Amino acid sequence: MVALECHIGMASRTIEIPAGFKGTTTFLKRHFSTGSNGIIKLTPISHVDEPALVGDEVSEVDALDLHRAAASLTGNIPGQRPISRIALVLADRYRFNRHVFGIMFDRGKPTEDDPNKSRLITGTPREACAVFLGAIQKLRPNQADYDREVEFTAIHELGHVFNLGHYDDTANFMARSRVAQPHDDSYFTFLEDQRNWLADCTANPLVHPGGSIFDPVSGLNEAQRENLSQGQQLSLRIGTAASEFPCSSPVELDVSLFVTGSESTRHFVPDRLDPGYEEFRIWITHPNGERRLFRSPRQYCALPSRVQVTRKHPRCRDISIFDSVTGRTFAKPGTYELQAEFSLGARGWLRSNRLIVRALDDHLCLEPGRMKLLRDHRVRGFLYHRSMKAADPMIARKLANHLEKVPAGNGANEIRYALVRAATTDIKNMTKSARRFVSEQINRIEDNEKGLGKRQIFHINELSHRYAEAL
Description:
The chain is α/β, with parallel strands linked by helices. It is 29% helix and 21% strand. Strands 9, 12, 13, 18, 19 and 20 form a 6-stranded mixed sheet that branches. It has a 5-stranded mixed sheet with strand order 2-1-4-7-6, sandwiched between helices. The chain is elongated and about 80 Å long.
């Protein structure tokens, strides 16, 4: 369960406190508890009877006014993560657009209506939203319609605080308001996949307020959740070591095919759990909403074979996905959605969970020398194939020298992993200096596994034992 306080205050006294915010504001708690499958415990704390946050007679507010009001309500320290307090500011009108009903203004990045770049403003994103009562009252003069629109808008904008985007195709809280009339009761709900997204608030920084900048996902997502096929008693799951990483960082996708039935259940499946085969596909939805098939630089043409999968013996792989035949997979910063499919022949396709990840601007999280290295196509080829045969031998030396100068930071372990995998393909014939280098890199990874997925760590442990035996 995630416990969050929602502090509510009035920006001015130019408009009355809405009925729903007088006394206990129970609808906020109810909708977010139901809407997150009981995971989010949102406790409304009212400050509406306290002094105005901006000024008694201020009828129009701008983004800076709202940021200051939110800071006053929550008391959060800029840059503090995770946070346990969010804010809902009730104002009259928004100066940038006097007709808008509400806004999630705390986006963590400069925008047209909010050009503030100060870390005091952008340091902790998605901690506050606002509802503009004057704009709603202008379009909803009937009291019942006004109260309904205020409630809907408050939940809608708080949905943005949890990084949910607009979804207008069917009735739900994240649909945009209509001009003609308020939404009916069917809209006062979150869709199943939206509930799954909110339920991931416990572990996913892309969901938890303050965990990442505002970059809303589509209305339908199942973040890091299994999509089980009960009839087949097989499940396909994908994951990455981290949900956020630099655009140019080497990224490995952990893939697991496992049995969900009893221990005696056995399945024989094609031995083709790799995007180099047509039987395995990875779909990637890019920040602009375009859904593309990942096209692996490797293409295999092998005789059909099958492997056995049981509950005790799942089929696991780690697959490099940061490069494709078209170039860098995560070329632009933003939120990406990944989903894998595996053909079971006549039994159809098995689909994985939907995995939400965020690619970060290289300039903000990579040391300059490392950023230059990781953007070099020759280096990327080596990191992808993890083989001395795949690149100029000098590339490995170049990466080793770089690690001596910059041993830590984003991307360090990913480089170590590739070097160790490449070097240990021929352990017995390694030189003494190569052995010392490999030993040091293995020790560093075992001391701090940051950046590596479960399958990569498994490989390192396995190589560590083989290496020790060879010596």
